[in-house]
Hints:
Largest sheet: 7 strands, mixed
Strand order of the largest sheet: 1-2-3-4-5-7-10
Number of strands: 10
Shape: globular
Order of helices and strands: EEEHEHHEEHEEHHEHEHHHH
Number of helices: 11
CATH class: Alpha Beta
Amino acid sequence: MTHERDGLSTRRxxxxxxxxxxxxxxxxxxxxxxxxxxADAVAxxxxxxxxxxxxxxxxxxxxxxxxxTDLSAVxxxxxxxxxxxxxxxxxxxxxxxxxVPVPVVAAVNGAALGxxxxxAAVCDLRVASSEAVFASSWIGVGLVPGMGGATWLTxxxxxxxxxxxxxxxxxxxxxxxxxxxxxxxVVEPDAVLDRALKLCADLAAxxxxxxxxxKAALRRTLTEGADAELAALGAVQGSLLTGPEFAECAARFRx
Length: 255
């Protein structure tokens, strides 16, 4: 049975909790409510008996980033409100994905842009469609990677490749993403979900305590210093979201 809340659809596939960003009319863009619902669902997964979590998007995209209309409404309340929203909701999601003891697999079925790229990068494993594209598109709307993307990309890809993505907003295809170690496997578009579910089933069959401890060990290496970076990002993004560059970009988006 599928349940829906705030643009998030949830269902069980055996031991796997499948979470689908389900706002196809908005290219699965992240609102504050959707991010909150996603964090809640991931946090509750182990208590509900899930051994793995699979995150994907309603076709044809994975996630096109943050919803600029929703973020603009927050920005209208001032820099403090923006900082609290980022720190309280978007960053809660980032921390939850890292702290939940079960593996989280991203099935990147289409474009993963801006916050969508950050979201995929912070998952434990990533399977991508051969038609997927990736971009740290924050720079194009006058923002920084607000979910810690600069940290995750640097540690996954290395400094030079991360700088190329973050500073230019360049798009790369799935084959390049695999070559750069951003994704673990690329498959045909109609096989993405099945391959990710098979990966989840394989993970769920492993000793759960050892799996949780292994994830924690990997996370300690990946996220060292990340809390300080997230705290800084809350203030930086707050000033940018209430500044003229983002306002101009958001106004163009609404036309």
